[in-house]
Amino acid sequence: MILPNQLLALTLALTPSLVVAGMFPKESLVKMLDNKTFKQAMKANQTSIVAFVAPWCGHCQKMVPEYSKAALGLHPLIPAYAVNCHAEKNKPLCAEQGVQGFPTVKLFPRGNSMPPVLHEDGRTASHFYYLATRGIPKAVEKIYRVEHIPGWVSGNKDKHRALLLSKDKNMPMLWKVLGNKFSGTELAFASHRDKKGKSSVAMGLEVGGPKEPKVLLYPAGSDTPIRYSGIHKYDSLSKFFDSVLDGTADLTVALEEAQTEEYVEDPEEAEIARKQEAQRIALMHGGFTDLIDFEKAMLEGGANYHDTAGYGGMMGSIPEHLKKKSDTPAEEATLSSKKPPAKSTKANGITTPMPNTETPAPEVSESVTTGKSRMPATTDPAVRPKDEL
To answer: What sections of the protein cross the membrane (predicted)?
Structure first.
């Protein structure tokens, strides 16, 4: 027999999984937050989007598939969160955020160090994708000519300086995210487009591969760069830059650790990466609904977005010396066969089922002009929806 206190503890333990399963499917990359985890998420200098929703809200239910598609396209560089404002424990947070109708979506450009921006545009996956990617604060200086690099280096000599040499037309989202994260620290970020490798040669470096990025670090007080030769991935680069800023860390050791890190493919992340290619193409031009937007996106960014953003938030391909060495020929054959499928022109993102609608939802007032649902006025326990999603 389960005692009341035990039942309450069991209910609280199961609540997070029930919340996700009730509104967002388990494969969705949208992460649910409560009052405590919201504060933790906002401590990071990170761009994120947050949807404040309620389980009885019809507009929220319609938004779920689109929001989940956007989360897939943004993963892992820009997190997509959701807060259940109907849960009693979250009501103070939603009131603090000025939530008056559902859904309410906000962009948080840099955690709690910058004021949030209310999203008042459409609710398609592309709208959410553009909201997030264009909302990353500009914290990286663009250097257009190679002869201007020495001036930037000497002008910021009192700081550590990280310079990206990239062959892509657009600055990789990963570099923008890193610049935002380390904004306000003793580490300055810049980017230079080295289209054909001529700038690299002028700086005494090799031309490099077609999509190979180069990251150079100029230690504070020095005009001589150190070449980062680790994995060009968010976690790896963040760890390295944290070591640079840590005065107790030996920079030589940090470089050696970065160079010896092996890339081990995570099956779950690999599956997400395989889904992302077509999804990102669709997100960039409104899900194939607007030809003009599509043509503009193609002109501005091209179609192979993994070359820019990388798989799993990575720039370029994995250097051969960093790949995990296989123990047997059979294993090597298996690893070599794990390649992303050919690009598709169909938006085959996550299939997001709608919530169970067998139980009639309570009557709510829905605004035609704002497209938001408001909290039902009744307080009758028999009529009010359950507390969780």
So the answer is: none
